[in-house]
Amino acid sequence: MELHRSIVFLVFLFLVAGETVYGNEKHQGLKKLNLHTYRAFRPTKLFVFGDSYSDTGNNPKSLASSWKNPYGVTFPGKPAGRYSDGRVITDYLARFMGIKSPLPYQWRKIGGNKLRSGINFAYGGTGVFDTGNFQPNMTTQIGYLQELINESVYTKRDLESSVALVTVSGNDYGAYTASGGSDQGLPAFITRVVSQMAINLKVIHNMGIRRVLVTSLQPLGCLPRATVLSSYQQCNATQNLSVDFHNQLLQRVVATLNNNTNDSRSLKFDAPLLPCCMGISVDANCGSVDENGKALYTVCKEPESTFFWDMVHPSQAGWRAVYLALRPTLTQIFY
After folding, report:
1. 244 included as an active-site residue
2. Any catalytic annotation for residue 270?
């Protein structure tokens, strides 16, 4: 049960809604947002900003594992740019809204009328700040939407009937550690990350989007890459402490929804921390091949029975479980 409780908070959504956004200088520049109640809101577009947890095909094919086998084996049956065996949270949220999953930004010029469902600006591996992977960070992604607004691709009315999804899954902290960041300096860096998130949320809100869903940081100590040392049996409590601090700050930015989202009925996985796809050596990952094209990874027989697809990302079944846990809250908010 404790494992299920940890996993269900992998993606806990906060709602940012309302007509007013104001700053609170007493809290190191963090922003607070008023929560207002809306009735009969019928969203028609979804705009997505973030990283691999919501990316549906933006990262370059030449660089991203999401375009290699066995990614996409469950849906659509071949690699399609999603960091999973199938659908991700973006797809499930779009389905809930009754629209098609928004087109990845890199395909916008050939999208035609597909742009009417919105656009996905998320790039795998990115963060609130630059993370060293040379892909657009969250501020740049938001700038892409502003450019489309300036070009009259989307109108004020379009934005008012839209929803924004903002995902952050810890790439900033991975980059911080990789660049030699110290444990002592981590709390200050976490504050910087959340402060910048607050600025970004205000920009999105001021564009005219009144409904913004923001993911809290998942328990990094529960990712398979952290639990491998315990044979995928226990989460790393030390890593999760930093996550708690990040999410505590985030709660001061947005109004937390007090709903029962930790419904474990949809999370009955026999080994919730065990990934389906993993490398056969410490130097290999899911999707790795040798110089002859031979697979250097293994894939479980039933991806639908696992929560995690690889060492970092949920499977389609995992994302579906998260969505089912969140659906009652989404229904209450939007309908």
Report:
1. no
2. no
Residue 205 a catalytic site member: no
Looking at 84, 169, 313, 315, which residue is catalytic?
A: 313
Q: What are phi and psi of 279, to 5 degrees?
A: -70, 155
**From 52, 54, 117, 216, active-site residue:** 52
pLDDT digits (tens, 9 = 90+) for 276-307: 999 999 999 999 999 999 999 999 999 999 99
Domains of the chain and CATH, by start: 2-334 (3.40.50)
**pTM of the entire structure?**
0.87
What are the tens digits of pLDDT across the range 7-49?
444 444 454 444 333 333 333 434 444 434 445 678 899 999 9
Helix 186-207 to helix 171-178 angle, to the nearest 10 degrees? 140
The count of other CB atoms within 10 Å of the CB of residue 202 is: 17
